[in-house]
Specification:
alpha/beta, Rossmann fold, 13 strands, elongated
Length: 386
């Protein structure tokens, strides 16, 4: 994308979300130029502010997800707070929330009421199990969503228990990314029709959608056990192999030309043409290759394969990721208030970023635009409304 393009400039997003899925979705929108107004409860705010380690008054976790946003506080259990939110929505293009189903209605912001009061508003709800169905009222976290989506069962090695991924796959992939895509798509339609929209994003269903090819294969009679699928460790040519120094090599040599060149380069010519072998024979081939790779340290293999194009890469640790020539060349990282931040593929490369707001930092500015003067704001603050 162009260095300074902000595709959502001029869009105002009212963000009632907390923790990870919603804030990641609105982070994408904020990076692309949308004015994101993060609304927090004045009594504590977003729980993510307090996850260690802390940087200043808020956590590194919070800083990473809330750059380029405005911060206000509203007590939505007070009718005066609800009235301010209604007035704020009059100028909004998007409302995104992540309460449990039914909470918005109890606060006086049911979907039908919102659609009637603000017909051009794009409304997005992110929840664990969706706004309907037998589990809609239940609590959950990423591991629970992945479990019920069938994703967790496929993650791990043959014969081992399922492994929880090293990041929140359902929260980000199943929730945040679908929310951001749905909102921007709805805004595109609104440009043509003038109509708003309502999006019901279930993180469980979002995670399940990643298994579309697996579901199709299963329905056609292909039953894969954990760690035995074509892309989950069941082939010698697509696995993670340990090296002698406790490190790992990711082998993704699916195409025969890559596999054959790989085994030839490391001195295992006898394995040519056998990378796609499955079953017991495939496990024996993987074992033979594994013994060879485990005899040398990671550095030996990366140097040997450095100029050989075979889809084999070292598994980088975090400090190596931060120092990676690939990521530095692509300007993936930048510093903001002492925190290393990650530019997403949608973040304009040369935009000036603003740090995550302190709680209620923009109350005067945002509520002042609604006609709330300093004296009234002080009274609302004293009553715990803002």
């Amino acid at each position: 994308m162009g260095a300074n393009e902000r595709f959502l400039e001029g869009v105002r997003v009212v963000d009632l979300t907390r923790l990870l899925p919603g804030p990641f979705a609105t982070l994408l929108m904020a990076d692309m130029g949308a004015e994101v107004i993060k609304v927090e409860d004045p009594m504590g705010g977003d729980y993510a502010r307090y996850y260690p380690p802390m940087v200043g008054m808020s956590s590194a976790f919070f800083h990473a997800l809330n750059r380029n946003k405005r911060g206000v506080t509203l007590n939505l259990k007070d009718e005066r707070g609800c009235d301010l939110l209604r007035r704020l929505l009059e100028s909004a293009d998007v409302l995104i929330e992540s309460f449990r189903p039914g909470v918005m209605a109890r606060l006086g912001f049911g979907i039908e009421e919102l659609r009637q009061a603000y017909p051009s508003l794009v409304i997005c709800s992110i929840s664990g199990y969706g706004q309907s169905g037998p589990k809609k009222d239940e609590a959950g976290h990423d591991a629970n969503y992945l479990a019920l989506a069938g994703v967790l069962d496929r993650n791990g090695r043959r014969g081992d228990p399922p492994h929880i991924p090293g990041f929140q796959l359902a929260d980000i992939g199943g929730g945040a990314l679908y929310a951001a895509l749905g909102v921007t798509s709805a805004l595109f339609r609104r440009e043509r029709t003038g109509e708003g929209a309502y999006l019901d994003i279930s993180m469980t269903e979002g995670a399940l959608s990643f298994l579309a090819p697996a579901v199709a294969r299963h329905s056609a009679g292909d039953v894969d056990e954990r760690g035995a699928g074509m892309l989950s460790g069941g082939l010698p040519c697509y696995r993670v192999y340990p090296t002698s120094d406790g490190r790992y090599l990711a082998v993704g040599a699916l195409e025969p030309k890559f596999w054959d060149l790989f085994v030839e380069t490391i001195g295992a010519e006898g394995l040519k043409g056998r990378g796609m072998t499955r079953g017991q024979e495939g496990r024996e081939i993987a074992s033979e290759l594994g013994e060879m790779l485990a005899a040398k340290p990671l550095e030996y293999w990366t140097e040997l394969l450095e100029d050989v194009d075979v889809c084999v890469e070292p598994v980088l640790e975090m400090h190596e990721v931060l120092e990676s020539e690939l990521h530095r060349a692509r300007q993936v990282f930048f510093e903001l208030n002492g925190i290393t931040q990650v530019r997403t593929p949608l973040t304009p490369e040369e935009r000036a970023h603003e740090p995550a707001p302190e709680q209620g930092a923009d109350n005067a500015r945002v509520f002042g635009q609604l006609g709330v003067d300093d004296e009234e704001l002080a009274g609302l603050r004293g009553d715990g409304v803002v």
